[in-house]
Amino acid sequence: SAARSAALLPYARECARELVARVAEAGSAELVEAYARKLPGLVVGRLIGLDPADVPAAVHGGYRAEELLFRPLSPQERVAAAEDVVALQHLLDGYVRERRARPREDLCSDLAAAAAPPGAGLGEEQRHELVAHLQNLLIAGFLTTSALIATTLLHLLCDRRQWELLCADPALTAAAVEEGLRFDPPVQAFRRVTTRPVEIAGTELPAGATLLVAYASANRDERRHEDAGVFDIRRAGTRQPHLSFGHGPHACPGSHLARGQLRLTLELFTETLPGLRLDAARPAPEMRPTLIHRSPEALYVTW
Q1: Please, which residues have CB within 8 angstroms of residue 214's CB and are 6 or more apart in sequence?
Q2: How many helical (H) and strand (E) elements, i.e. helices and strands, does the chain have?
Q3: 214 is a domain residue
Q4: Is residue 198 situated within a structural domain?
Q5: Which among 37, 21, 40, 30 has a CA at the least distance from the CA of 257?
Q6: Tens digits of per-residue pLDDT, 30-87?
Q7: Is 1 helix (H, G, I), strand (E, B) or coil?
Q8: Are residues 299 and 32 in contact, defined by beta-carbon separation less than 8 angstroms?
Q9: Which of 26, 208, 257, 287 could be joined to 5 by an S-S link, Cβ 3.0–4.6 Å?
Q10: Whose CA is closest to 149, among 19, 2, 296, 302?
Q11: Each residue of 213-267: pLDDT tens digit?
């Protein structure tokens, strides 16, 4: 919910300040690993109710699940990735059992309480379902936001005018968040299934047809966005219509939290490191070869 997301933002800002301070001390950094992958993991871990000490293992398991689902792997690599995912599931199952017995103010406790009547034990099938829910929330909560943070920083730093505009005028931050989402969303496309016969752009589709819905293409539609292929944080309004969080019943429930983390990231980096720039001594950033969780593989910067 928006209220639950808002309640997490002070913790997110505290974590972000610590991470930015560590980066600032170094003189140069690789921001994907030093920042973009760390902040969302800490935040979604807090939402679910993970001990901060368990967050790195949970994040690792989440990335291994992504590799298993979306990357071509050899049989041996698939087995190794699956073992890491199972380790994540065992970790989450321990939290389910613990929170069922001793609930706290977190999402894991809420889900465990809703899974069975008070006083009843959790069966194996219920535990499997809870672990699956928590794994999906965890992965969706940090992989997408990590990708969004890294990609938006990349586009701001690739066009020096945009970064300097944002540093000079913090009031542009909300618009920069929306432009980052519109221009290069972390989920470029996703599969959907038609629920009834429908015609799209002159093509007749039956019920049950599997489609790849290209959110990124819709976000670059020239009929909706002027100069749609240009990254420009000065676009009118802060909520230009885009499909980066889906739409209708499929709209992302974590949109408030993702927006909040990107907003405070831009605020802190422009305030603390206005001289931030891509490290010219390093190779140009390369994007990860996937439509899901699109982001730079690495983002080397200096200042």
Answers
A1: 188, 189
A2: 11, 7
A3: no
A4: no
A5: 40
A6: 999 999 999 999 999 999 999 999 999 999 999 999 899 888 899 999 999 999 999 9
A7: coil
A8: yes
A9: 257
A10: 296
A11: 999 999 999 988 989 999 999 986 545 689 999 888 888 989 999 999 999 999 9
Question: Encoding tokens for residue 25?
Answer: 């001390």
Residues 6+ apart with CB under 8 A from 199: 205
Q: How many domains does the chain have?
A: 1
What is the spatial distance between Cα 246 and Cα 70, in angstroms, rounded to a whole number? 20
CA atoms of 139 and 66, how far apart (whole Å): 8
- The boundaries of the domain holding residue 257 are 2-186+251-302
Position 24 confidence tier, pLDDT thresholds 50, 70, 90: very high
The CATH number given to whatever domain includes residue 63 is: 1.10.630.10
Query: Is 278 inside any structural domain?
Result: yes
Instruction: Specify if 241 maps to a domain.
Output: no
Paired with 192 in beta bridges are 211
- Tell me the whole-structure pTM to 2 decimals: 0.93
pLDDT exceeds cutoff 90 at 293: no
Question: For the purposes of burial, counting CB atoms within 10 Å of the CB of 184, is it exposed (0-12), middle (13-18) or buried (19 or more)?
Answer: buried
